Amino acid sequence: MSKITTELLLERAVPRSTRLRKIETLNLSKLQLKTGDLDPRLFSRLRHLQKLDLSDNLLDKFPNSLTLPDLRVLNCNNNKLEDVTALKQFPLLEELTYENNVYLTLNDDYKVMFLLQNLRLLNGKDITKLANHVRRVNSRKLTSKVTAHWEKFFRDQLPEKHTAEQVKFIKKKFLKSVQTNVVYGPSSLSEFTRWRVKMIAEEFLAYTLGLEINTDTESEEDMDENEEESTEKPREAAEDMGQVTVMPSKRKRSNSKQGSGNKRSKSRANTKEEAVVSTRKSSPVQDDPAPDQPRTSNQPAREAAPEQGAEGTRKNEEPLPKGQSNRRSSQLTGEQKSQEQDNGVISLIPVKNSKGKEDVSAEPLHFLQCHSKGNSREDFKTQLWSCVFEPLLDCGARKDPIVSSSRTVATCGGESVCLIDCETGTVLKKYKVATEEFFSVAWTTLTMVISDSCKKSHNILAVAGRRGIVKLIHVAADFCYGEIKAHKKPIATVCFSPTRETHLFTASYDKRIALWDIGIPDCDYNFKASQLLVLEALSIPLRIALVPTCPDQYLLAGCEGSCFAWNIKLDKEQKSRPFEAVFQFPDEVGNMTTSHRVDGLAFLNDDVVVSKSSKPGCIYLWSWSRSFDTKGKGSQRTVSAVILAELEWSTTDLSYLMLSTCPAKDYVFCGDERGNVWMYNLSNYTTAWSSAKGKHSDKRIPPTQILKWPELQVNGEQLNEVLINNVVSDPTFTYLVVLTSVNITAIWKKS
């Protein structure tokens, strides 16, 4: 039986009423109402209702058939709303609030601004000017782009005399293509843009081909999710960010205690300061640190003991800035390069190759200075260490079959973690802990319960560093919901299991690798973390990698002293385990040895391991299956790595310059001590390596290309001595993110 009755409505009317048709103000807050409790037949009798309060309930959506023709004010705060498109049924709505609905985003703000033509106030902010821009300028730009896309790529595909089947095929193909390729505005609004593009495209087809318009504005895509991707990839130039300055007022989503509000405000206020770069040059890079310390560019690193009561140490008090979509930090567009060189902003001069031609296989997009300590403009010392692209979500109504790869990357270094849109260079979110130095980030996707009968997938970011504490951040809610005190010494790297979403590995300077079950937070962010396993190493683990063919059984780690393998199968009783094998590699004179630092480690495919050790100028590729006998008995075995090939690389003796791989494209990436990125396309070699007859060639494989570091100038002075600490591509190798020792994040895009 529904909780809402005629008697309840009359009683909750303000003032109380004797007839439903006379009610103008109604308060239905704090009744634990669910969507099914809103009976359309009963609500249809509220013909003159103008103000409705549904706050502090359990609504996840609105029924489409509520008949409230005169509704002007609606309060939906503190519910569990996932979609706002049903609000279009209230065309006279002037004031709308839905704060503290953690599953609603900036995209939903824009949707209601478009759908509700009379809306003036949204979450207490006057949005009149912004709404007019969304309804007029935004729509005009998108309509122009949709029309141009049809004219350029699809008009000639449809014959003059066409059948209904041909029209249906072209429509489906066009809708998918236009949503993929029409780009406008920042990445944070990409969902709204695709929603509008689909709507405009359907209207365009209805006018051009006489088709029926699909008036359903729900967020679900009506495309066949199993349909193969279109082989056509027309290019549509993204709208210059300088021309799109419309951003909504930041709304508050109070998922944390009020005590942290001032910190967020300060962070926002200082963000713009990062966009200007001073003339101060980077300090000289000194020798490598001691084996138990991370490298720094100005002084040997010292282990920082956690300070009691320091900022950012308390659970549930470290939300990210809400709805933040900062402008680009220390970056430039083509028009800005010449104009900003004399204004204290980093300027970019592309470096020519030996033939005097610019290398066109990849082009630099953005150079960002967004990890500055205290938002200082003069910080060219903060080292950037780790970056990982955000995984795509598969979460029911919000599933996005259009986008094939994420362009949002999480980067860490110094006291902050940033989420960056690689296409626009926008810093979408920033998370800071003043007493921390972050070394590693990792993503997982947790299936969280959002109501009694509904589950939803959300991306969770784990970050860790010098203090040995793992922070867990629910990115969509802009909320750091907890921490795990994993180690007493710094954490060098973290990674999640690809098969078990809650299993997190942490490798620490205490010479241990721990496996944690981080649990799944409930709707109030209560969670329980537990330690499942401890792997004992003989030296500090620097890089870890799970074996792709058996990620629940074996883990590899590149350490200060060698490369080790552990059996991590959880059906064993032994909770603390020694390594099962240590790998030998050739030294400089060709002798096999286990005494070498392995500071680069990744899998190129299911079998080929890529590792970088102390032998100068060399990166090894070796076979996991031929090197390690999984049926072998006994622990602490010494085995020789079966070398498949060697990659030619820099002859530097500097350590901690990380490598990475792009398995889908058979690429290996590694930076050097001169700011260059070495790229190796190994697709012509992998077939031979998969054969049991594949032999090691004495000839090193040269790089396919070396991306030269551009001349970055600060008021005419060149920024020198740049080390490339890390290089990571997205899964489709569209973007390449380069992290440096001088607090610069460089983003390249494959041409």
Question: How do the helices and strands line up, and which of them pair or pack?
Answer:
Blueprint: H1 6-12, E1 25-27, H2 40-43, E2 51-53, E3 73-75, E4 95-97, H3 106-115, E5 121-122, E6 125-126, H4 128-153, H5 164-181, H6 190-209, H7 261-271, H8 334-340, E7 347-349, E8 362-368, E9 384-389, E10 408-413, E11 416-421, E12 427-432, E13 438-449, E14 455-465, E15 469-474, E16 479-485, E17 491-496, E18 503-508, E19 512-517, E20 530-536, E21 541-546, E22 554-559, E23 563-567, E24 576-577, E25 581-586, E26 592-593, E27 600-603, E28 608-612, E29 618-623, H9 624-627, E30 637-640, E31 642-648, E32 659-662, E33 667-671, E34 677-681, H10 686-690, E35 705-707, E36 711-714, E37 717-718, E38 724-729, E39 735-740, E40 745-750
Parallel strand pairs: 1-2, 2-3, 3-4, 4-5, 20-24, 25-30
Antiparallel strand pairs: 5-6, 7-36, 8-40, 9-10, 10-11, 11-12, 13-14, 14-15, 15-16, 17-18, 18-19, 19-20, 21-22, 22-23, 23-25, 25-26, 27-28, 28-29, 29-31, 32-33, 33-34, 34-35, 36-37, 38-39, 39-40
Biased composition (Acidic residues): 215-230
Protein name: Leucine-rich repeat and WD repeat-containing protein 1
Organism: Falco tinnunculus (Common kestrel)
| Strand residue percentage | 25-35%
* Helix percent band: 10-25%
Termini separation (Å)? 61 Å
What does the main sheet amount to?
Answer: 6 strands, mixed
- In round numbers, the mean pLDDT is 78
| Total beta-strand segments | 40
Structural class: alpha+beta
Low-confidence stretches: 215-360, 395-402
Contiguous helical run count:
10
CA radius of gyration is: 28 Å
